[in-house]
Design a protein that fits this description.
Layout (H helix, E strand, L loop, with lengths): L13 H26 L10 H15 L3 H15 L12 E5 L2 E10 L3 E8 L3 E4 L5 E15 L7 E3 L4 E4 L6 E16 L5 H12 L2 H20 L4
Antiparallel strand pairs: 1-2, 2-3, 3-8, 4-8, 5-6, 5-7, 5-8
Helix pairs in contact: 2-3
Length: about 230
């Protein structure tokens, strides 16, 4: 009896194609339902909130004024006391951040799947695109002034020390930090999709591989450690 010829991709029957299409549709539908359910219950996973962070920022500024080193220490100390167990990174691992054409330094205080908290700023000023994100972003100004612009407006939005610039999820602006400006930046929502914006300039413009590696290492480390603690 002659051996059977091996089957080829062209031998796919309409029945097998329909079965695969059905499986794909069912899996996609289940994942969509899961995403919508989790997205509508993100509050379950947050440990921080913008109201408390604003109050903390104002108290830190009230205690230390323009001594930003002391302001940051005040904030991280209180958060560490409030959330023991490693949720707050006390190692000030400052890293350059290039995103949306702007450049500054950042210190990652907390990073998880649904939240991040960083100190971001520069001593020399910067300007760029905010990005369009899958999370609400709260910029608590600790020092200096931030300006923002939305197309159609003829005047800038002005955010001085002690104020909060809330960039709503899915919206976008131009922003500028005149001279020295530092902020406590808090994002709540889906954080992983935001990482592409944070890496894009490094991959396509600066090609600063050591900085990209440090950013990836610190962010990934904090996210994994918080997942291990049960923090999504």
């Amino acid at each position: 009896m002659p051996p059977k010829a091996p089957s080829s991709a062209s031998d796919v029957t309409p029945q097998s194609f329909a079965r695969k299409a059905t499986i794909f549709t069912v899996v996609f539908a289940l994942l969509t339902v899961l995403y919508r359910f989790l997205d509508s219950h993100l509050d379950w996973f947050y440990i921080l909130n913008p109201t408390d962070l604003h109050d903390l920022s104002l108290r830190a500024i009230g205690a230390h004024g323009n001594d930003t080193t002391a302001v940051v220490a005040y904030i991280t100390k209180e958060l560490s006391d409030k959330f023991p167990g490693g949720y707050i990174n006390l190692d000030q691992e400052w890293i350059f951040n290039n995103a949306g054409g702007a450049m500054g330094g950042m210190y990652i205080i907390h990073a998880s799947i649904t939240e991040y908290l960083i100190i971001f700023g520069t001593a020399v000023g910067t300007e760029g695109h905010t990005g369009r994100h899958t999370a609400d972003d709260y910029f608590h100004i600790l020092k200096g002034t931030q300006l923002a612009y939305t197309p159609g407006s003829y005047e800038p939005e002005v955010y001085p020390q002690g104020s909060v610039h809330h960039l709503h999820r899915g919206t976008v602006k131009q922003y500028k930090m005149d001279s020295a400006c530092f902020a406590l930046e808090y994002a709540r929502g889906w954080i992983p999709p935001m990482l592409g914006f944070g890496f894009a300039d490094g991959l396509t413009s600066t090609l600063d591989i050591p900085t990209l590696w440090r950013t990836t290492w610190v962010t990934g480390r904090e996210m994994v450690l918080n997942l291990a603690r049960g923090k999504l």
